[in-house]
Amino acid sequence: MPGNVSGAMCAPAGCYLQGAKPLGPEPSRLSLPTSNGVPMTDVLATDPRLVEITERIIARSKDTRAAYLARINRFRSKGPARHHLGCANLAHGFAACNTADKEALAEGQAPNLGVVSAYNEMLSAHVPYGEYLEPIKAAAKEMGMTAQMAGGVPAMCDGVTQGYPGMEMSLFSRDVIAMSTAIALSHDMFDGAMCLGVCDKIVPGLMIGALSFGQLPIVFIPAGPMTPGLSNAEKAKARQLFAEGKVGRKELLAAESASYHSAGTCTFYGTANTNQMLMEIMGMHLPGSTFINPYTPLRDALTRAHVHQLARITRDQSVTLAEIVTEKSVINGIVGLMATGGSTNHAMHVVAIARAAGVQINWQDLSDISDIIPLMCRIYPNGLADVNRFQAVGGMGFLIRELRHAGLLHDDVKTIMGEGGLSHYTQEPFLEDGELVWREAPIESLDDSVLRPMGRPFAPEGGLRLLKGNIGRSVIKISAVKPEHRKVVAPAVVFHNQAELQDAFKRGELEKDFIAVVRFQGPKACGMPELHKLTPPLGVLQDRGFKVALVTDGRMSGASGKIPAAIHMTPEALDNGVIGLIRDGDLIELDAESGSLQLLVSDEVLASRTPAQCDLNEVHYGMGRELFAPLRATVGLAEEGATVFNW
């Protein structure tokens, strides 16, 4: 590894790295060039529209946020946490440690850092974490501290389980991960903690669990995306040709294998990479560290620097997780989601994370923020570029600088850098003669087909919208949907699972204008699986000139594509939702521009109908699904985070 380098916390006189070059001058002294002719020396006042949304969220959250902070404050301790344990308890806690660590843990005053890891070999993104523990321990030792593996959490790959029984446990795995995180940290041996996780439900689960220990300083350490493989355009073409029967499974597998070809995060901008964006813009990663490839000297240096920075804020007790995750940092995360056209899964995950911190947000908040945040990125599936290209042309540093300068981010927040808001997050890391340094991110995008400045966005508003109407409330990701496809009025064709739609497509029964209604896919019914296998056939039909759309109480997530899809329908069919009253041939109007979703059937006719029934036994048993019955019975609404926790 490179020399003794790390991140640093922000002191009043400036922000400097111990053993490394300065991360940058204090924010008030930054003197930057211009962007689109606008001086960028100062951060503009927060946009009044964002202020209004923020104030209503703060007011709505007053009681729950106060209750959360009161709970957290009860567990603040002075001195190492382990010193409050009895001798027998402590002896169990360090029984397997080496002699030096035993002495430090038994008698020393230095903090002990806990590691919660989602490492396994089923997720390419998490494979690098298999080599993290010893370097983490070494980095902690360099700071005069100890580190221990606190515990592991389960981590499933949605890419493996798509369309199969395991997907019906996917969303609930988030809450299982949250509970597993709590178990890992429950030993109360730790003064600070680091969470190792990347993918879909894993980061939200780790965050929810970690927030129960909000009195601790906690950092998230990224692992980075795999290097580029087969282009996204070629991959999408292979999937569509397979759906049309023009290529076989052998050709499809070859294309998929060339796309997902090594350790690291999948390179498209799905939920995994949206998670990583979220952690950086909320201040849980070191600046510019999110999209650095694994197994590189820079990645190794950044991992070490994360540990050093955690050690500093733990030793100085300068910033805790509860102080980082606030109403304003949650809103910053939502701003990033909209500006990048990120995963629709976060219409639930951000809500659940916020609620774990006592912050009450809803889909109207997300939609209103989307209305004022320009779409600045085109990353697959919203474009052809992958996250490596995004990183190369300017990345998070460029994005955050543009949003911050425009007053569309709250700068009065804490991060793992301590005080100073997001001032350091306009910078990116480099190795200079083996030494870790930070420099200003590019002032101009190096490819405006991927990343654009505020003055020339791809669209004047973000990628997510709330749809409301007599069917219920749902969300739609419009950043990948062309304007001419955003309004569809067509008769319903009703299905009770995605396999039924695929079979109808293969039989040639869907060569027409229609809106597919796929119901009994909500969290209460079967765990709310992602329905990605619907994208290729619906995409084929749209390309053939038919007007098609999807309405479902299931999910489509970060890979939501070019088809207008009203997803996460609430209330779901099994919860007496109107979606359960729709019949084949009913006219439906989906208008993503106006935010309307209407079943064009009179109230009198709807009142005369009996809700549809669906035998769900087949999806409730086998492959472990029977174990999740208590979660299906207690899960809340999608708009409330689809969580089993009652905040």
Automatic annotation (TrEMBL):
Keywords: 4Fe-4S, Carbohydrate metabolism, Gluconate utilization, Iron, Iron-sulfur, Lyase, Metal-binding. It comes from Cellvibrio japonicus (strain Ueda107) (Pseudomonas fluorescens subsp. cellulosa). Its cofactor is [4Fe-4S] cluster. GO terms for cellular component: cytosol. Belongs to the IlvD/Edd family. One of its GO terms (biological process) is Entner-Doudoroff pathway through 6-phosphogluconate. Catalyzes the dehydration of 6-phospho-D-gluconate to 2-dehydro-3-deoxy-6-phospho-D-gluconate. [4Fe-4S] cluster binds at C199, C266. Residues 450-642 form the Dihydroxy-acid/6-phosphogluconate dehydratase C-terminal domain. Residues 111-419 form the Dihydroxy-acid/6-phosphogluconate dehydratase N-terminal domain. GO terms for molecular function: 4 iron, 4 sulfur cluster binding; metal ion binding; phosphogluconate dehydratase activity. The keyword Oxidoreductase does not apply. This is Phosphogluconate dehydratase. The keyword Lipid metabolism does not apply. Its EC number is 4.2.1.12. Binds 1 [4Fe-4S] cluster. InterPro entries: 6-phosphgluc_deHydtase, Dihydro-acid_dehy_C, DiOHA_6PGluconate_deHydtase_CS, ILV_EDD_C, ILV_EDD_N, IlvD/EDD_N. It catalyses: 6-phospho-D-gluconate = 2-dehydro-3-deoxy-6-phospho-D-gluconate + H2O. Transmembrane segments: none annotated. Pathway: Carbohydrate metabolism; Entner-Doudoroff pathway.
